[in-house]
Design brief:
This protein has 308 residues and is α/β, with parallel strands linked by helices. It has nine helices and 16 strands. The model has no long low-confidence stretch (mean pLDDT 87).
């Protein structure tokens, strides 16, 4: 009998009405969601971005106070839940490493061990100006017992190169923690397009809006609506879209094997060109109070977390 890779994936949402008293309550709610995913027998579950800070209206200084090293107390909690329920967990936190800080997703295996981390590579102006975050510098893909997985975070979705690089690195599933959808319909369209273009499953976990799981054909197979909770889908990672010769191939072929054949990387150089200095790395930024400050002053305020 054919050994097919059938797995149960889960996404989560805190719901659009979420409000809390602080970090502890947010982490307790995250724990409840992971426990529920475990009770449902999920193989892998994804938590949203900003899971530690959204809902209790912290000041910028209080946000910075939540930064932790990896491993640390927050990741130990995630790891313990992964181990208890024998499932993969994608957790999120603000990570501190030395004098730098990152927007980080962490992948845990079924034994609760850290498989790897992903640091958001496309940092918004707000994250840089208010929280002193530095961008990551890689797009890793990790091996699991059901396939290869990559991660991206929120603003990364505005850059289609992100998911394409993960797909070219043979990711089967992309886990995608996200804060919110500024324009929900546009967000849905983009996510479904990324899945179709790259023939990957995408698990989007949105903190206070609509979470979903999209299959490699662009169909939404789990959808939170705007409700809090855990939302699951059993997927077959070996179910493939077959193209016929009339679809431009030389015979029946799996779609994810067809599109790499006709890529023309030699024509895509413009994508990789380094252009003008991006405005989020300008020498003058605007802080949370609307004041124009230098990067040097910003670094002084937050203890040197954002070095150049």
């Amino acid at each position: 009998m054919e050994n097919r890779r059938k797995v149960k994936l889960a996404t989560t949402s805190f719901g659009h009405l979420w409000a809390s008293s602080g970090l502890r309550e947010n982490l307790d709610r995250a724990t409840e969601l992971l426990e529920e995913a475990g009770r449902q027998g999920c193989d892998a579950v994804c938590l949203p971005e900003y899971v530690t800070v959204l809902g209790w209206n912290p000041t910028d200084e209080q946000v910075i106070a939540t930064y932790e090293e990896v491993p640390g107390p927050i990741t130990e909690r995630y790891g313990a839940l992964a181990r208890r329920h024998r499932m993969y967990v994608v957790g999120w936190l603000f990570e501190r490493e030395g004098s730098r800080a990152y927007n980080t997703a962490v992948l845990f295996d079924r034994a609760g061990q850290i498989v790897g981390t992903y640091r958001k590579v496309h940092i918004t102006a707000v994250e840089q100006a208010r929280f002193g975050l530095a961008p990551g510098d890689s797009l890793p893909v990790f091996e699991t017992d059901f396939g290869r997985v990559g991660m991206m975070i929120c603003y990364d979705d505005y850059f289609p190169e992100t998911s394409r690089v993960l797909a070219l690195s043979e990711a089967d599933v992309i886990f995608y923690p996200r804060l919110e959808w500024p324009y929900e319909t546009v967000g849905e369209i983009k996510t479904r397009a990324r899945a179709i273009d790259n023939t990957v499953f995408i698990v989007v976990a949105v903190m206070t809006s609509r979470s979903m799981i999209v299959d490699r054909h662009g169909y939404i197979v789990a959808d939170s609506g705007h409700q809090p909770g855990v939302f699951t889908s059993g997927v077959d990672l070996d179910a493939h879209l077959i193209l016929t010769k009339s679809a431009g191939t030389d015979g029946p072929v799996r779609y994810e094997l067809a599109w790499p054949r006709v890529r023309r990387p030699e024509l895509y150089g413009k994508i990789a060109e380094t252009g003008a200095k991006h405005p989020i790395w300008a020498d003058i930024v605007v802080d949370s109070r609307g004041n124009r400050v230098s990067n040097a002053e910003l670094r002084r305020r937050i203890g040197g977390l954002a070095e150049e």
